[in-house]
Amino acid sequence: MADKEEIIDVIQIISSGHVGPVTFYKLLKTCGTPRAIVQKLPELKSFRLFERAKAEEIYSVCCRNGIQILLYSDPLYPAALKNIEDAPPLLYVRGNTEILSASGVAVVGARNASINGRKTAARIAYDLTQAGRCVISGMARGIDAAAHKGAMYALKQRGTTIAVLGTGADIPYPQENSELYEHIVQNGCVISEFPPGTLPQAANFPRRNRIIAALGEATVVIEANLKSGSLITARMAAAYGHQVFAVPGSPGDGRAAGPNKLIKSGARLAESADDILQYLNNPVPLPPAAEKKWQTELNFNWADDAPQTKRQKIKIIDYLNFDGVYVDEIIRASGMDASEVALELLELEMSGRIKRLPGNKAALTKLK
């Protein structure tokens, strides 16, 4: 296990200008130890060595706030993550580090998820956890949050889950998930490769996604449009040799476009946790033609996963699908007053975008 000085050495190196994970490991191979890299960097004009005092302060902040620092060489550092070329040289962790070695499944999807999509995510996560698999996600609103909650409700509400953040391990994002963040710390752990205090930045989220993809021996996508960061996670998982599953949806719903595209590209269709568990217990490789599709068709950008400068209001229509959703569920999920929901539903109905169904339900009539 690394000592304090070695941890500070690694913080100093990875925080230096023009040093990313791949460069770190190249330097390590050349120099032999983090201490030797710190001594060598000032001689290399292409790098800018991070101040030692600032690295020491990051270490102190972690100690004061109960954030553990795991180096790539630590026995508790997840073995699945070590297998990728750009594995983070260190991880900042709050919670139970021992679950990082658990057999995990990544569950990801849309932020503006429908109520049925959230229920599906929670049910799959619950069943996976009951079966002894650790659910991994990114703690975003929508599918991610539902998956974490479903996992924690399992095992008599003692289920564990791992949240991978695109912020510092001390920064809940989005802010509305602050309570969820605290529950995850108690029931599992939150991890980040970014130092404490790091605020949301667009470039951090694709980096977060590679960790989610690497940790899960399988990745499940539930509702995602064609520009979703969830599809970046799926592409990365496939590149790492992990199986990708997708929950299909109605062709008329934009949130189904991502999962349906994945299935066409070789992902396995999943309707429940049983479909995932059957494969994990008896893995069958994809045929070569399907493997090739991953390289040519899963080329999506990650704009949907980028942080928002303001809290993005989710519209009532985002909670709906073509099968119908109870109005009471919409009120609970949106947090809006019943009168506000009723007014917005009336406007949508008058515009022909939704229809009312028996039993106080509303459903989409056409593509949003």
Folded structure, characterized:
The structure is a single chain. The chain is α/β, with parallel strands linked by helices and 368 residues long. It contains 15 helices and 12 strands. It has helices spanning 4-14, 21-31, 34-40, 52-64, 79-82, 115-130, 143-157, 178-187, 204-215, 229-239, 257-264, 273-281, 288-297, 327-334, 338-350, and strands at 68-71, 90-95, 104-109, 134-137, 161-164, 189-192, 216-222, 243-247, 268-269, 325-326, 354-357, 361-364. The protein has a 9-stranded mixed sheet with strand order 1-2-6-5-4-3-7-8-9, sandwiched between helices. Strands 10-12-11 form a 3-stranded antiparallel sheet. Strand 7 (216-222), helix 10 and strand 8 (243-247) form a beta-alpha-beta unit. Helix 1 packs across helix 4 (52-64) and helix 6 (115-130) runs parallel beside helix 7 (143-157). It is elongated, with a radius of gyration of 22 Å. The model is unreliable at 294-306 and 308-312 (pLDDT under 50).
Give a brief outline of the structure.
The protein has helices at 4-14, 21-31, 34-40, 52-64, 79-82, 115-130, 143-157, 178-187, 204-215, 229-239, 257-264, 273-281, 288-297, 327-334, 338-350; strands spanning 68-71, 90-95, 104-109, 134-137, 161-164, 189-192, 216-222, 243-247, 268-269, 325-326, 354-357, 361-364.
